[in-house]
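protien #1 (seq + structre)
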Amino acid sequence: MGINENIEHTLLKQDAKHSDFLKLYQEAIDNKFYGVCVNPAYVSEAREYLKGSGVKVVTVVGFPLGATTTETKAFEASEAIDNGADEIDMVINVSKLKDREYDYVVNDIKSVKNVCHNHNLKVILETDLLTKDEIEKACELCIEGEADLVKTSTGFVKGGVGAKVEDVRLMSNVVKSAGLGVKASGGIRDYKTAINMIEAGADRLGTSSGIAIINESKNQ
């Protein structure tokens, strides 16, 4: 499998123009990326453009803070799926996690998964804001909440690093035995970093630098 099949080609910038989205879709088709990741308002368009290409449509819920209500997250996910989303990336409620309100966190995840049905649900942990123990606990809660993958970052934490190899390895060690996957996202801008993430256990790479990574891979 080529590295292109791990990449979710991402455009979540709030000032992105329509031409940027059209470019994203076409690049995903041309490079046979796993999917594109866009905000909910662009799901319908992405689905139409990518029809028949095999490229998945991924969108975000409770983004980027994770602090909307459970009901709102579930509605966002349900609407996105109705509009053609194949996969949902929801942001965990970091405050509730840090306050050890674990039942809340599990219910938050499970409520979104219930509307996803057979569509993959990824849970964004926002690892830049968590200790190693909190990352491990969050992964355990994602297993309990019946998520399909855990994801490192939104990429929106000010001063944040995003995906770290050691965090991806920790997440992988916790969730893989339960059958969950891992998505590394945030700060993955070159081929070496991408490979390091995969070797650490990442199944997916969320990046806006997919083209640069693919171009570098051709020289390896």
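ok now protien #2
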Amino acid sequence: MHYPVMRITAAVAAALAWSAAAYAQKPIVYPAKGQSAQQQQQDDGQCYAWAKSNTGIDPAVVASAPPPPSGPATGGGERVRGAARGAVGGAAIGAIAGDTGQGAAIGAVAGTMAGGRQARQNRAAQQQAAASGQQQQIDTFYRAYGACMEGRGYTIK
């Protein structure tokens, strides 16, 4: 019943990871004042080192950082809490119907499923936050790099 939601969540997480990798690329540099290829290479290396020392960010390290785990969503206790809530609710309904134990069991199963869904949603939110933080670091580095290269007479896009 909730499988389309899981697929959409997985697709969004994959798209975010891909977009972070796509945006992690170095900006395009044009030698606006006729700098030679050798001069551009020298300026590039110096500006890369300057941006790295001034921001404390190395885009190669940030881009190669492992993503948060994406395996089965089991970590935060959402399933256990869901099972407990479901068992209590199911026992109450079962008491009305005349079978408290069966109601509690059914409620626990339903609660476990709801807790699993919550765990998956929490995992997707963590992955989005990690990708966003990684992108912000890379953007900061390349703003500094671009400022350095512009100061040396290059056009940055």
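Strands lie at 29-30, 155-156.
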